[in-house]
């Protein structure tokens, strides 16, 4: 149920807030809404990747080395202490991309050896 008067009852509030429509609107389908969400997420990921590449290019070799060291220490602590969330692990993996010029073929994002 919508709590906003501009969104029809029974319609999807997040879709209306994001796209101005949802799959319950006339002439719209669930597949169309799903495609809209997927496209939005792909654009967000592309923007995030471009930002990461820009940030990584701005790091000096010494900054890259120190960031790599700090991330290694954080990963070791996460493994030994435990209790960290998947979101925190994903953040560490995301930051690790800043330390690599180009990922090695077959390299895992979590830093483990295959």
Written as H for each helix and E for each strand, in order along the chain, the element string is: HHHH
Which sheet architecture does the biggest sheet show? none
Count every helix, treating DSSP H or I runs of 4 or more residues as helices.
Answer: 4
Number of domains: 2
End-to-end span in angstroms? 48 Å
Strand content: under 5%
Could you explain how this protein is built, in words?
The chain has 4 helices and no strands. The protein folds into 2 domains: 1-58; 60-114, no CATH class. By secondary structure, the chain is mostly helical. The radius of gyration is 20 Å and the shape is elongated.
What's this entry about, in short?
The protein has 114 residues and is an all-alpha fold.
List keywords for this structure.
114 residues; mainly alpha; 4 helices; 60% helix
Task: List the SSEs and their pairings.
Elements: H1 13-19, H2 30-58, H3 61-81, H4 86-96
